[in-house]
């Protein structure tokens, strides 16, 4: 499901940058500098596909019937994306601490 340009989902846009976050265009520029020619729309698509995988995995882990939830809509939710980002940040910091203590 692709949103039309300028569309807004019920919970708001997911491209709002808070604190140390970066937006799709900035990610696109970084990827291009690294040698991966990538437009911001491609970055968005990769992120949304990854968020869908997180949503599907959580639904499966919690034993919820997939038909009962719209994981596509959940994956597009700014709140869900922010939550996944915070979890990944915590995991990264724990792993960083472990590497520094070795």
Summarize, please.
The chain has 102 residues and is an all-alpha fold.
Key features of this structure:
60% helix; single chain; 4 helices; 102 residues; mainly alpha
Describe the overall structure.
By secondary structure, the protein is mostly helical. It has one domain (24-100). 60% of the residues lie in helices and 0% in strands. The chain contains 4 helices and no strands. It has helices at residues 24-33, 40-61, 71-76, 78-100. Helix 1 (24-33) packs across helix 2 (40-61). The longest helix is centred in the C-terminal third of the chain and has 23 residues, at 78-100. The model is unreliable at 1-5 (pLDDT under 50).
SSE sequence, one letter per element: HHHH
What does the radius of gyration come to?
16 Å
**SS elements, strand count:** 0
Helix content: 55-70%
- Report how far the terminal alpha carbons are from each other: 45 Å
Number of helices: 4
Could you list the spans in which at least 5 consecutive residues all have pLDDT below 50? 1-5
Strand and helix map with partners:
Blueprint: H1 24-33, H2 40-61, H3 71-76, H4 78-100
């Amino acid at each position: 499901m692709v949103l039309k340009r300028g569309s807004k989902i019920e919970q708001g846009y997911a491209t709002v940058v808070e604190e140390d976050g970066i937006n799709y265009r900035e990610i696109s520029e970084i990827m291009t500098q690294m040698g991966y020619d990538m437009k911001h729309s491609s970055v968005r698509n990769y992120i949304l596909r990854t968020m869908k995988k997180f949503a599907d995995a959580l639904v499966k882990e919690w034993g919820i019937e997939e038909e009962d939830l719209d994981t596509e809509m959940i994956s597009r939710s700014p709140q869900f994306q922010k939550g996944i980002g915070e979890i990944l940040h915590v995991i990264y910091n724990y792993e960083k601490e472990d590497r520094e203590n070795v």
